[in-house]
Design a protein that fits this description.
mainly alpha
Amino acid sequence: MEVQVKIGFNQLVKIVKTLPKNQLNKLLNEIEKGKMTEKSDSILEELLLKGPVATKKQLETITENRNSINLWRKSPI
């Protein structure tokens, strides 16, 4: 069962002001959780965009090393 109620902003403010302190604190914590999630996502994105980038030569070296390791693993003992 789902019920939807349209409440104006001023009514919402009045309702929030009447909440007991413990419920008001819970509400504020929930609001802050949402902000932290958004903020942490943007921080991670910024970190990844500013992170180090491998050069073409480094990528070639990595590929050569992988191929060498694969050959070593497949060789009979």
